[in-house]
Amino acid sequence: MIRAIRGMRDLLPPETERWQQVELAARELFRRYGYQELRLPLLERTELFARSIGAETDIVAKEMYTFTDRHGDSVTLRPEATAQVVRAFLEHGLAKAPGVKKYFLIGPMFRYERPQKGRYRQFHQINCEALGSDAPELDAEVILLLLDILREVGLGQVKLLLNSLGCPGCQVDFKAELKLFLFDREGWCPDCERRRAVNALRVFDCKSAHCQGLLQGAPALVDFLCPDCARHYARIKELLGRFQVDFEEQPRLVRGLDYYTRTTFEVTAAGLGAQDAVAGGGRYNGLIRELGGPDLPGIGFAIGQERLMEVLPPTAAGARRELLFLAYVGEAARDRALALLYELRQQGLAALMDFDHRSLKSQMSLADRLQAAAAVILGESELEEGVAQVKWLADSRQERLPLAELAGSLAARLRAPA
Ligand code: HAM
């Protein structure tokens, strides 16, 4: 038997139905906040990610699915969506669109990480990007949207972590101070040894407990913010307070991607173990220019769908589906059921029947095993009288409904069960 690749999960029913519900809820909230959907390729030029996420990040240095295509070009399965949203934004001249440009993107991402609970090699993100404004009101709005989505899908207790990384100006002094701190201590892992020289901020990403221990007492970026960045950050905190959003300031929250400036945030949830970030995001005011575009700011977030599903409370188990099962006795009824099947579907109802000439008993048992809401039974006498027997499988209640109005009556009953 050929099995799926390690770290890549098959999503099967009924899980896929829950995924659909979550995506539907997210889409509805994106609509209310004025976001439009982008669907972009899974493959991009490797250079796009190397330039935007940063060569020293774990993602680019260790985790990308990169290969050479038949033409000899280096291509990569997207490890995240922000870089490609900006790529598409520039390629299609979307900067000309009026107002803040707001996009969402839902789909798979790929990172060659060590699989464990909440960490996969193919995973899915609900991604949000807003380009064209640096207003702190937009930061607050993006965070509110994220929390709205999480609340709407039923995620109860979450923790919002917040930080500001300042602008490149603030980072110059901070990085100098951080470097002094890092070179003052010895015993870093080989990765951090290299990082402290070339990209000091990335030392914070290290997963080794030893390096994290050495980082105790390291300088924090918030202490180096310039007056503009400090005002920006203060305003966001004020707005979040005004909307009664609880948050915790987390000076170590640098996030594992190089493009962030100013605001960074993460949402964590209990029950996920070590991989407890359900969503993460932040501002990337230099990224659009870095990728060859105008000097436009941007901000966004991504929700990890697998992690979200993991912490969502289970939906009521064993709930019957809104499915009708047509059962028949005899050839004439079989023919009529076939026509009825089509009529019901035309009316928007989900309906199935058996084509394999089973006995009525095994058709009824099939209806039950399929978790149908009702079995619609047609036999000779029903055909003569122009009715169908409808058996509601949850409580075995039976009723006779005129065939002519069957679709309408069933639709009404399914929508408002008695
Ligand atoms: P990220 O923090 O790398 O940010 O990923 C966002 C979320 O994706 C994480 O919080 C987590 O829930 C999920 N995730 C990441 N890696 C895995 C994995 N291996 N398995 C399962 N879930 C995972 C970004 O990707 C940024 N592009 C977010 C962003 C958008 N920033 C601005 N705009």
The level 1 CATH classification of the largest domain is Alpha Beta
At the fourth level of CATH, the homologous superfamily of the largest domain is: Bira Bifunctional Protein, Domain 2
Structural class: alpha+beta
What is the strand content?
A: 15-25%
Using the 3D structure, state the CATH architecture of the largest domain: 2-Layer Sandwich
- N-end to C-end Cα span: 47 Å
Note the quaternary state here: single chain
What is the alpha-carbon Rg in Å? 28 Å
**Helix count?**
15
- The outline comes out as elongated
Q: How many runs of DSSP E, i.e. beta strands?
A: 16
Residue runs with pLDDT of under 50 for 5 or more positions: none
Q: Helical residue percent?
A: 25-40%
Bound molecules: histidyl-adenosine monophosphate
Whole-number average pLDDT? 94
Report the sheet with the most strands, covering strand number, pairing sense and barrel closure: 8 strands, mixed
What is the element layout, followed by pairings?
Blueprint: H1 15-32, E1 36-37, E2 43-45, H2 46-53, H3 58-63, E3 66-68, E4 74-77, H4 82-91, E5 101-110, E6 122-131, H5 136-152, E7 158-164, H6 168-183, H7 190-198, H8 209-214, H9 227-242, E8 248-249, E9 261-269, E10 277-283, H10 287-290, E11 298-304, H11 305-311, E12 323-328, H12 331-346, E13 350-353, H13 360-369, E14 374-378, H14 380-385, E15 387-392, E16 397-402, H15 406-415
